[in-house]
Structure formats: C-alpha cells, structure tokens
Known about the structure:
The chain is mostly helical and 62 residues long. The chain has helices spanning 8-19, 25-47. It contains two helices and no strands. The termini are far apart.
Amino acid sequence: MNNTQPDWAAYLTQMTQILNLELDDARRAELEIQFSRIAAMAEPLMAFPLDDRLEIAGVYKA
C-alpha cells in the first residue's frame, strides 16, 4: 500500500493553470479537503489484490 500523501495544493495549482480557472482561498481549501476524502475512500479499493489472471475490462476507443 502506498502511504505517500498526494500534494493536493500543487495538483490544484496545476489544474487551475491548465484549465485557466480562478479559485478563491475558501474554494481551494474545500477542494483540498474533498480530494483528501475521495483519496481516503479509494485507498482500500486500490489496495485490494487482484489475481494476475483476471481479464481486464475493454477500453473504448473512438
């Protein structure tokens, strides 16, 4: 299991620059909290071991 915490502040800075968005401090702080919550919920799922012989799902390509 990966115990390294993502740098959500850096991620938000990069995404706001790429998407040309402006966030006030309150919204940025709330997004950091929400990203942390989502990551915490996903952690057990991401840690679940999968059998190497399982077929992967197909990937749609247009």
